[in-house]
Amino acid sequence: MEMFNSEEMPTLDVLVAYGIEIGLTLLGAFFVLFIGLWLAGFVERRLDNVLGKSEKIDKTVANFIASLGKYAVLVFTGITLLGQFGVETTSLVAVLGAAGLAIGLALQGTLSNLAAGVMLLIFRPFRIGQFVEVGGQSGTVKGISLFMTKLDTGDNVRITIPNNSVWGSAIRNFNYHETRRLDQAYGISYDDNIDKALDIIKAVLAADERCHKDPEPLVAVKGLGDSSVDIVVRVWCNASDYWALNWHLLKTIKEQFDANDISIPYPCRTIYKGDE
After folding, report:
1. Where are the extended beta strands (E) located within 102-217?
2. What contacts 24+ positions apart, CB below 8 Å, involve 142-147?
3. Phi and psi of 234, rounded to 5°?
4. Would you tell me how many other CB atoms lie within 10 Å of the CB of residue 47?
5. Which residues pair with 237 in a beta bridge?
6. Which CATH code of 3.30.70.100, 3.30.200.20, 2.20.140.10, 3.40.50.2300 fits the domain covering 179-259?
7. What is the pLDDT of residues 200-249, one digit of tens each?
8. Which of 174-210 are b and which e, b meaning 16 or more Cβ less than 10 Å from the residue's Cβ?
9. If one looks up domain 12-106 in CATH, what number appears?
10. Alpha-carbon dihedral 15, 18, 19, 24, rounded to 10 degrees
């Protein structure tokens, strides 16, 4: 609005015209603000409902994307409002873009963790409660956020890992499948009966219900070591039974070997002394 000097006092018609112009501007701004706020809420609710119904998208990611949609509409609304009052929005957008670039460079590490967190929540290589090995650490997953992943070790130590380190490394999920293969190795003396040792191990496996019959357990001679005949044992079981079965088989097979005179030899080395 132009200022009037004392020599050019506005007439009533001019004042009315300016009043109408200002009123229309304020009315238009109010209308834009009302529509912008309504549209922002509608976009947020719509995205949250649509993404929340997908089983492949985590609820946290759905909320995050819905919030991004809401704030994008609010930013556009703010720029439109400034345009209503005569502000040059082109230069403002350029300034906001430069500021966004500067902030992005300053927060590069944080933004990379955010991007990695979104990828983890979308692709779900592991879930809360599963035992995993990520970023050189292993433990039970206790939390997955947009910036970090929390693990609890077997001795109840909390490990917090930035998501960038998790997504950027190999992920081993020990509970992804319902079943796992348990591998063990035993060594018997060269003087022992190999077939007898194999039958003992097979009997122990058959007596334990945790050992799956399909696929059939494998018990075979793996190789001839320096001081023992090496036997390999491969048996499938439920992932939840893995460690309990492993410890039980080690103890039971050793006891059955002792009861049937099958020896597990100590490593030995024969040294020949040359003639003096």
Report:
1. 131-134, 137-144, 148-152, 158-162, 171-173, 179-188
2. 144/58, 144/60, 144/117, 144/120, 145/60, 145/117, 146/60, 146/64, 146/113, 146/114, 146/117, 146/118, 146/121, 147/110, 147/113, 147/114, 147/117
3. -130, 120
4. 19
5. 180
6. 3.30.70.100
7. 999 999 999 999 999 999 999 999 988 899 999 999 999 999 999 999 99
8. ebeeeebebebebbbeeebeeeebbebbeebbeeeeb
9. 1.10.287.1260
10. 160
Angle between helices 242-259 and 194-207 (to 10 degrees): 140
- In 3D, which of 151, 223, 162 has the Cα closest to residue 194? 223
Sequence ranges of the chain with CATH classification 2.30.30.60: 126-173
CA atoms within 13 A on the CB side of 160: 5
Identify which of 90, 76, 67, 68 has the alpha carbon closest to the alpha carbon of residue 35: 76
Q: Which CATH architecture group holds 126-173?
A: Roll (2.30)
Contact, 189 vs 265, CB < 8 A? yes
Tell me which residue of 134, 140, 211 sits closest to 175, measured CA to CA: 140
Query: CA 108, CA 104: separation in Å to the nearest integer?
Result: 6
DSSP 176: S
Tokens 């040294």 found at: 271
* Three-state secondary structure call for residue 181: strand
| pLDDT tens digits, 7-63 | 555 576 666 666 776 766 777 778 878 888 888 888 888 888 887 777 766 666 676
140-153 confidence digits (pLDDT tens): 999 888 788 999 99
Output b/e per residue, 218-235; b: 16+ Cβ within 10 A. ebeeeeeeeebbebebeb
Residue pair 141/126 in contact by the 8 Å Cβ criterion: yes
